[in-house]
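Bug #77: duplicate submission created two jobs. Keeping one. Sequence:
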Amino acid sequence: MEERYYATGRRKTAVARVWLTQGTGKVLVNKRELDDYFGETLRGHAMQPLRALGVQNEFDVWCSVRGGGISGQAGALSHGIARALVVADEEFRKPLRKHGLLTRDSRMVERKKYGQPGARKRFQFSKR
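Kept job's structure:
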């Protein structure tokens, strides 16, 4: 049986469960082709770890992504692929770290405050 490498990636409220296997560069996201799931820009962002190492055609990626929006899901996929590559080969850690792909982006949406329409925005002030 071929070896599979698993990792979890997170971004905003999206979570990506990623499995890597030796292969030809085929990528499935929620049982759909990568091109069908993400637009051109997000596709590039999601595949950044493979491009940084130059191993786009050496691994097949299968992942399940849930939560958040499409942008957060692309970020979660990128994070998950980077972590799975490190599980596959520890030599990949240094270049991925250099490109900042192993660090979880901890930025989250700020909560809405009471007495305001959003996190920062205030209702219009009326003097009279």
